[in-house]
Design brief:
Shape: elongated
GO biological process, one term: intra-Golgi vesicle-mediated transport
Distance between the termini: 102 Å
GO cellular component, one term: Golgi transport complex
Largest sheet: none
Protein name: COG5 protein
Domain Conserved oligomeric Golgi complex subunit 5 helical: 10-215
Order of helices and strands: HHHHHHHHHHHHHHHHHHHHHHHHHHHH
């Protein structure tokens, strides 16, 4: 009838006036029934009713306008819900007694009633999330039916009708309207009420949790909606429909390329997150600034440190509602750890007496011990806090552990690698310059070895045992033990002349050296290459030069330069050691070796000494070289080719 009436004026024709009136009323009745059916079907999530109602509107040619009006209705309803949830006047009035304020009177909680205001606000927010979720579910359901339903005559899919003329899909249109309304209403509400602003900033994680829960519910609904379709007796109704990909039109399941619906939802929270993180950092920094007053000389007490750790744990626990918030708070915790490290480092004593190893602990050394122990306790406590966090994001954990590594710098300064210099300088005074070639040892080891053992034992008991970070201490004292072995082997290889009795005494010293460095490490075998050198060098004392030259330990374990240095001690006085040829003292030669760790440089110096010997033999017109010389030349060539 509509089609026949188009473009024709039928008014004034009495014969059909009653018919036209009946048709208009019938159309209105059909539309109203279809509207009621659509509302009921969407509300009860009944696709059969929704499909029937949509078919009516399609037949009447009003499908597009009807859908637009329905979606606009949902948007308007939610806008009203949001305004009501944030209405400060309602939130601050006792129930049942709403009184009007005077002109210009601001609505605010009465003193002592803030808790009730907050409780009412969060109840409203939970209710609002339920309302948003319900409305979203209904729009999703409507879109799903539109996506599946086709006109039985023309076979046109209803969603195509809606999307004609470049219109965006209804769920996208609805969601952008809702998220924009949330942003604008939250902004205006918190701009006009300090109490709302403080509530959202101070309890931001609670607000974020509500948003996250809403988002999870929306996604869950998207996953369930198809199952509901397939189990609600609608199979017959849609038998003629071509099945489409379930989620192509569902933005909650499949993000658009240029649109992130979850980000759109959370955009309304950005200003509150920034304020919350700023206050969180203040809460973390305040106890540290309190326990490190200007001019203070002592690290925090155990109770003060416990308070700092509790604050860190509390901030991380509260932020656990969201991975992104956890990461942001973890960055604040990292800054807190760094601040603690910087403040601690400022307390360290760097005076000369901080590295002395002669007398008892000085005041500066005691303070350094206290600072390092304080840093160690912080390190261990924060690690424990991280371990106890359930579902802590990997990126957040990495952020905190990286910050903990940074505070090892003050550790290093405090444990006093300055000790290293003092200890090793002191140790070098114990090593022998020469040993008698006659007589057998009548004591287990040389006097210098006894003194070295006593010195190391005293350094460990008087200085290092006060540190609680045993692993860290051993990491550093093991380096001292390796250095002690290096110096010992170096000096042992330079002893000249070395008789049989000297060899016996030196062999005993090698055995005692293991005992001497034992306090500096967990196990002597942990010293790696240094330990293997100590073990491999000892048997060489009693081997012939030919045997030494063919030893499998050569090059692999003991550097060629050390063995060549040792073979000089078996040569006649004319074959001078490199330091003798250069007219250096052993101490100066030892320093040169420290300054030239490269094997190439050391071998070049040895080659110079051998060449000088050849020259002196020719000058004296002697007929043969010392027996050890060809072995040394052969070894030098082997060493040079190994370098290449």
């Amino acid at each position: 009838v509509d089609y026949l009436s188009q473009g024709i004026d039928l008014s004034g024709i009495e014969v059909i006036e009653n018919d036209l009136l009946f048709i208009a009323r019938a159309r209105l009745e059909v539309e109203n029934q279809a509207k009621r059916l659509l509302e009921q079907g969407v509300e009860t999530q009944n696709p059969t009713q929704v499909g029937t109602a949509l078919q009516v509107f399609h037949n009447l040619g009003t499908l597009k306008d009807t859908i637009a009006n329905v979606v606009d209705g949902y948007c308007t309803g939610l806008e009203e819900n949001i305004k009501n949830a944030l209405d400060i006047k309602v939130l601050t009035q006792p129930s049942q007694t709403v009184t009007r304020g005077g002109p210009g009177r601001a609505a605010m909680p009465t003193p002592g009633n803030t808790a009730a205001f907050r409780a009412a606000l969060w109840t409203n927010m939970e209710k609002l999330m339920d309302q948003i979720c319900a409305a979203c579910g209904q729009v999703q359901h409507l879109q799903k039916v539109l996506t599946k339903k086709r006109d039985p005559v023309s076979h046109v899919c209803f969603i195509e009708e809606i999307l004609k003329d470049g219109q965006s899909d209804i769920l996208y249109k609805f969601w952008t309207a809702v998220t924009q309304t949330l942003s604008s209403q939250f902004q205006s509400a918190t701009d006009s009420s300090m109490f709302l602003k403080q509530a959202f900033e101070g309890e931001y994680p609670k607000l974020l949790r509500l948003y996250n829960d809403l988002w999870k519910r929306l996604q869950q609904y998207s996953q369930n909606i198809q199952r509901n379709f397939n189990t609600s007796g609608t199979t017959d109704l849609f038998a003629e429909l071509q099945q489409m990909e379930d989620d192509t039109q569902d933005i909650f399941m499949q993000k658009k390329q240029d649109y992130d619906p979850e980000k759109a939802l959370k955009d309304s929270l950005q200003q509150y997150e920034a304020a919350y993180l700023s206050k969180s950092l203040s809460r973390l920094f305040d106890p540290i600034n309190l326990v490190f007053p200007p001019g203070g000389r002592n690290p925090p007490s155990s109770d003060e440190l416990d308070s700092i750790i509790k604050t860190i744990a509390s901030e991380l626990n509260v932020a656990a509602v969201d991975p992104d918030l956890s990461l942001a708070v973890a960055k604040n915790v990292a800054k807190t750890i760094q601040l603690y490290g910087v403040k601690s480092e400022q307390l360290l004593s760097t005076q000369g007496d901080a590295s002395q190893v002669i007398g008892p602990l000085t005041e500066g050394q005691r303070r350094n011990v206290a600072v390092v122990n304080s840093l160690y306790r912080l390190h261990q406590s924060v690690l424990k806090v991280i371990t106890n966090q359930s579902s802590f994001p990997a990126a957040a954990e990495q952020t905190v552990t990286t910050a903990l590594k940074v505070i090892e710098c003050p550790y290093t300064a405090g444990v006093g690698l300055s000790f290293d210099l003092s200890v090793t300088l002191q140790m070098s005074t114990y090593f022998p310059r020469s040993l008698s070639s006659s007589g057998k040892p009548d004591v287990p080891c040389s006097l210098y070895m006894k003194e070295l053992q006593g010195f190391i034992a005293r350094v460990m008991s008087d200085y290092f045992r006060h540190f609680e970070c045993f692993d860290f201490v051993f990491d550093n004292t093991e380096a001292m033990a390796q250095r002690a072995i290096e110096l010992f082997i170096r000096h042992a290889s330079l002893i000249r002349p070395l008789g049989e009795g000297g060899k016996m005494r030196l062999a005993a010293d090698f055995a005692q050296m293991e005992l001497a460095v034992a306090p500096l490490c967990r196990r002597v075998s942990d010293l790696g290459k240094s330990y293997r050198q100590l073990r491999s060098f000892r048997p060489l004392l009693f081997q012939t030069s030919e045997h030494i030259a063919s030893s499998p330990a050569l090059g692999e374990v003991i550097p060629f330069s050390i063995i060549l240095q040792f073979l000089f001690t078996r040569a006649p006085p004319e074959l001078k050691s490199p330091f003798q040829r250069a007219e250096w003292s052993i101490a100066r030669y030892s320093q040169w070796l420290d300054d030239h760790p490269s094997e190439k440089d050391r071998l070049a110096l040895i080659r110079g000494a051998l060449e000088a010997y050849v020259q002196s033999v020719r000058t004296r017109e002697e007929k043969e070289f010392a027996p050890v010389y060809p072995i040394m030349v052969q070894l030098l060539q082997k060493a040079m080719s190994a370098l290449q």
